Amino acid sequence: MNFLERLYGIFFQPVGTIKEIVREKPIWQAVVVIIVTGLLTVTSNYRFTMVGTDFFTSSSGMPDVGRLRALFVPMAVFGSIFIAPLTYFVYAAVYHFLAEILEGKMYAKVEDNVSFDQIEENNAEIEQKASGEKEEVVIGTAKGLYSAIGFAKLPMIFMVVVNLFVRLLNSRAGLILTYLFLAIFTVWVIVLEIIAIKENYKMSTGNAVLVYFLPYIVLVVLFIIMIMFAGATFISIFSEVLKNVPMQ
Predict the structure, then answer these.
(1) C-alpha 131: how far from its chain's center?
(2) At what angle do helices 171-201 and 142-152 cross, to 10 degrees?
């Protein structure tokens, strides 16, 4: 597949296209998708580009935050070009580690007389590299995962159309429509990323879902523990204060 075929395939043949992506590992094409999608999505957002939005106007007794307008677009551009690709690098590293813990397939070797279809049937497919008289089939690579989850971000490009359309609506309706479609496209991206994990490591759907959500589960658990610790500390301090209050 070439670049345009992969873009088309993500929308209309996602599973087959992701299988091809994790095999071929077009990592720089994935970086282009991440950067371009982020740039177009953020810069088309009316909150960053429209003149006269409440967020950028000053009010009585408040500093002129309208002067910050010049900073937001460069910050968004910098984030889309540099921060977003690095963030996906972290995602791929974390998911790769978790997939290995959950026994995702990392590599396999087969003789060169084994057909690609047979390899796929045995769940040992992905990239084939000639090596003497043998073919080395490499699966479950972090590079393949990065490429796949990079392309999985592509549905967010439709937020450009949404962002342009909401300019025609009032602020309340525009905000509701924006968050509605943002939720829809986010779910779409999550499904594609889970498919990427599943196909890259030849895992079951359940394990792929667990790998995807485990970091978020850990963060939620840590947050709850911190809240409980902070609450216990506050109660302890409050109790000590009450003890020292003179009783009349």
Answers:
(1) 35
(2) 150
User: Which of 18-22, 127-131, 232-236 tops mean pLDDT?
Assistant: 18-22
Give which of 149, 153, 221 is closest to 186, Cα–Cα: 153
Helices (H) and strands (E) counted in the chain, each on its own, are: 11, 3
Element (H, E) at 191: helix 171-201
Task: Give the residue with greater pLDDT, 151 vs 58.
Answer: 151
Mean pLDDT (whole number) for 72-84:
84
Whole-number average pLDDT of the chain: 79
Angle between helices 14-24 and 3-12 (to 10 degrees): 140
- Whole-angstrom distance, CA of residue 216 vs CA of residue 227: 16
Q: Specify the pTM.
A: 0.76
Q: Residue 155: how many CA atoms within 13 Å on its side-chain side?
A: 20
Q: What's the distance, Cα to Cα, between the start and end of the chain in Å? A: 84
pLDDT at 233: 85
> What residue has token string 């060169």?
112
Pull the structure tokens for residue 162.
């949404």
Angle at CA 223, nearest 5°, toward 218 and 227? 150
Contact 48, 76 (CB under 8 A): yes
Please report the pLDDT score of residue 75 as a whole number. Answer: 82
Give 13-21's long-range contacts (Cβ < 8 A, gap of 24+). 14/192, 14/195, 15/195, 15/199, 17/151, 18/148, 18/151, 18/152, 18/192, 18/195, 18/196, 18/199, 19/125, 19/126, 19/199, 21/144, 21/147, 21/148, 21/151, 21/196
Q: Element (H or E) spanning 200, and its range?
A: helix 171-201
Asked if 6 contacts 17 with a C-beta cutoff of 8 angstroms, the reply is yes
